[in-house]
Amino acid sequence: MHNVAVEPFKLHPSPSGCPIFHNTMVKHGPPSVLWTPERVRDCRARNTRFAGTAADYAYDCTAPRVDDDGFAGGPFRRFLR
After folding, report:
1. Cβ contacts of residue 48 below 8 Å, gap of 6+?
2. What is the pLDDT of residue 63?
3. Which residues fall within 8 angstroms of residue 51, CB to CB, at 6 or more apart?
4. What is the pTM of this model?
5. Fewer CB in 10 Å around end: N or C, the chain?
6. Which whole number is the average pLDDT over 25-39?
7. Dihedral (C-alpha) 17, 40, 48, 53: value to the nearest 10 degrees?
8. How far is it, in rounded angstroms, from Cα 34 to Cα 19?
9. Residue 68: pLDDT over 50
10. Measuring CA to CA, which residue among 12, 2, 1 is closest to residue 34?
């Protein structure tokens, strides 16, 4: 996906069991964002690449679960919020 506006994946409301495999996202700002007050359960992102520009965080998420994913771009003040 190229030029994603805010969140690459809309994981609302309260998803359970979301496989996110083998994707590439390129966007301005933080490469990956998930802003939701809802609980996100059993969602897995594997072999997914996130590329963004300078931002405070590489992954701005309320319920993070990161494994085997790549982040590019930056500079980022911190990796994860």
Report:
1. 20, 21, 22, 23, 24, 25, 69, 70
2. 61
3. 24, 25, 26, 27, 31, 71, 72, 73
4. 0.64
5. N
6. 82
7. 160
8. 15
9. no
10. 12
